[in-house]
Design a protein that fits this description.
The protein has about 100 residues and is mainly α. Helix content is about 55%, strand content about 10%. The strands form two sheets. A two-stranded antiparallel ribbon has the order 1-2. Strands 3-4 form a two-stranded antiparallel sheet.
């Protein structure tokens, strides 16, 4: 069995500095990766929010709910329809294609 080697104070401090540097580098690398992925996601799917798109969506909602019994919500990104019952047994359909 070997006897554990006792490090001097300078060796311990140097080791702690290395661990601190590795920890900081890892944290900065992780932050850079998150920012990079966020920028890539924003560049590939920017979306649109304009007053014209919002007004058109609101008009589409008003027109569809005035002519049918289903409530339709339209946004600039997607269109969803609330479920409606089609029989007295409680069968629910989504109304989409």
């Amino acid at each position: 069995m070997t006897t554990p080697i006792r490090f001097t104070r300078e060796e311990r401090e140097r080791g702690l500095r290395r661990v601190t540097q590795i920890t900081r580098a890892t944290a900065l690398g992780g932050l850079a990766a998150v920012v990079g992925f966020a920028c890539a996601a924003a560049a590939t799917n920017p979306g649109k929010t304009t007053a014209t798109a919002t007004t058109t969506a609101a008009m589409a909602v008003a027109a569809s709910s005035a002519t049918t019994t289903t409530t339709t919500t339209t946004t600039a990104l997607q269109r969803t329809t609330t479920p409606t019952t089609t029989s007295s047994r409680g069968v629910v359909t989504t109304g989409g294609s």
